[in-house]
Amino acid sequence: MTAPVIGVLALQGDVREHVAALAAAGADARPVRRPSELDAVDGLVIPGGESTTISKLADIFEMREPIDKRIADGMPVYGSCAGMIMLATEVLDGRPDQRGFAGIEMTVRRNAFGRQVDSFEAPVEIAGVPGEPFHAVFIRAPWVERVGAAVQVIGKVTGGPAAERIVAVRQGNLLATSFHPELTGDLRVHAYFVELVRAA
Fold this sequence. Notes:
Blueprint: E1 5-9, H1 15-24, E2 28-32, H2 35-38, E3 43-46, H3 51-60, H4 64-72, E4 77-80, H5 82-87, E5 88-92, E6 104-109, E7 120-126, E8 134-138, E9 143-147, E10 152-157, E11 166-171, E12 174-177, H6 188-199
Parallel strand pairs: 1-2, 1-3, 3-4, 4-12, 5-6
Antiparallel strand pairs: 6-9, 7-8, 7-10, 10-11, 11-12
Keywords: Glutamine amidotransferase, Hydrolase, Lyase, Pyridoxal phosphate, Transferase
Pathway: Cofactor biosynthesis; pyridoxal 5'-phosphate biosynthesis
Function: Catalyzes the hydrolysis of glutamine to glutamate and ammonia as part of the biosynthesis of pyridoxal 5'-phosphate. The resulting ammonia molecule is channeled to the active site of PdxS.
C-alpha cells in the first residue's frame, strides 16, 4: 500500500518531531513552507509553536490562501496545540491581528492551561485511538470551550484540576489536539491521522 504523503507546515514550531512521528507511523512525511510543496501532499499537520507567529508567517510565505483552499476542498489537516488554535473559528485571549484557517467550528482559549511554567502531563482517553489513555503533554496549551454541531469531541482530560476539559476534536477530515503527541514517543495519534489521510 502506497504511503500517504503528509506535509508538516514548516514555518515555526515542532516540525522535525512531527515529521519523524509521521514517518514512523507509515507516512511519506516532509516539511512544507511553499504553495508548490503544499500541492504535492495528501494531508497537512500544523504543529505546536506560537500561533501568532505562525499566523504572520503564513501571510509572509503566501501560504494562507492555498491552505484555506485545500481545507475547503477536503484535505485532511491535523493541528496540535498552536495548530488547534489555527484551525479554530474563534479564539479567546488571542491577539487582534492573528488569523487562523478557521476549519473547525469551535471556540478555543489560547494559553488556557497557563504559561510555560504551568506545563503539565495528564492522561487523555481519545475516541478512535485504542489502548490505554494517551499520556498527553500540555505546554502553554489551549482548551476548547465550545464546539459546533458538526464537531466530535474525541478527548477530554480525565483527572486533576483540568478534568473534563476538551482537548481533542474532529470535524470531518480535520483533527485537533491541544497537546503534543510528537513529544511522547507514542505514535497512536499520528497513526490515527495517517489512516484518516489514507481513507480520504
